[in-house]
Design a protein that fits this description.
Largest sheet: none
Order of helices and strands: H
Distance between the termini: 32 Å
Helix content: 25-40%
């Protein structure tokens, strides 16, 4: 997907598409908007419950 950022002007949000950023040593972060993001968050929670 190559969606625009909807006019957001934060310097760490790319104008369109995606951009890899170093997020941390112990964690990484991703941004997924809309229904796909909600489904991904739910799946990640489910997976963590399986291993936790």
């Amino acid at each position: 997907m190559n969606a625009t950022n909807g006019g957001v002007t934060a310097d760490w949000i790319p104008e369109y598409g995606f951009h890899l950023r170093k997020a941390g040593v112990q964690f990484d972060a991703i941004r997924v908007d809309g229904d796909a993001g909600r489904r991904l968050a739910d799946l990640m929670e489910e997976l963590l419950n399986l291993i936790g």
